[in-house]
Amino acid sequence: MGELTIGAFARASRLSPKALRLYDELGLLAPARVDGTTGYRYYVEAQLPRARLVAWLRRVGMPLARIGEVCDLYETDPPAAGLVIGAYWARVETETAARRDLVTFLVDQLSGNPAGKGVEEMSEMSMSEMAMSEVRMRYAAGSDRGLVRPVNQDTAYAGARLLAVADGFGADGARASGAAVDALVALEESVRGADVLNGLADAVDRVNRGNREGGSGESGTTLTAMLWTGSRLALVHVGDTRAYLLRGGEVSRITHDHTLVQSMIDAGSLTAEEATSHPQRALLLRALDGSADHARPDLRLHDVVPGDRYLLCSDGLFTVVGPDDIRRVLTTAAEPADAVSQLIALALAEGGPDNVACAVADAVTV
After folding, report:
1. Three-state SS for 157?
2. Of the given ranges (73-77, 136-140, 148-152), which has the lowest mean pLDDT?
3. pTM
4. How many angstroms separate the CA atoms of 42 and 86, rounded?
5. Which of 171, 277, 294, 355 has the lowest tally of Cβ within 10 angstroms?
């Protein structure tokens, strides 16, 4: 097979010579031969599929380090590489939605309209009526060791501005989950308005550093929390604790699990039903375990409508209590405390194989 100069290969692959030199230096696309005297790079036609794949992935914004992994996988298992690309794009769309919410929030704050001008009407109450009414939270939280685990490493909290659930793991898991929730409780009185997302991010970073500096072994925690800002809830989420919303009789999940099986579901290689019995269903891709690579939280803002009911819970609930039962309790329980006690009772009735924690809050007008 004849060799191509870097210029000819650049035209065929639609990559510039400058980009080809960079990808060579990064190990993404090494030339077939480098002239020992002149230093000229030469390529072969068999390298074109990889080069074109690099060009396409750069156009969609995939980081260079991830591109190398996808290209290596493509050479041995193209369908698997396609699934990885699909999972990457699903994550991009989720993060884009979170950034869109943040932009809306900042525009509202800077324009002096914290009530959320321009947000679609989401209830029968008009925006003017909402402005005339004060919305507050009615809340409750609870946690139980379960019937199998020797200690309770779950922590749940509910207050006037904050809901939080953390699920600790490892030898020091109880301390880790408690420290995560305590760090957020400190924000209830100190963080307001446009600083709320930065405050949550900083608190999570401090918790993660604490687990790195003072943790024991492979310990850490997941965390899902919502901080009330007056017209919205600011959400921070790491791991597989979850947040659900009951609105208009329908229950929806408003967090995305950071687990291996969820990434496989996103990529289309696993169904939600198959995930429930997958041997690695508990493997976390993100958690507050002291590692900078694993601790990146999801941060977003969620519009609140009077009548909303929110549930935060650990996997000790949703892995054993089905969605229909969760919806039934959220729909019928008169008070948040009733919902918390009923949900924990359902988990225990299913054998209570894990710690279970719940926090429930209602948005009510006064």
Report:
1. strand
2. 73-77
3. 0.69
4. 33
5. 277
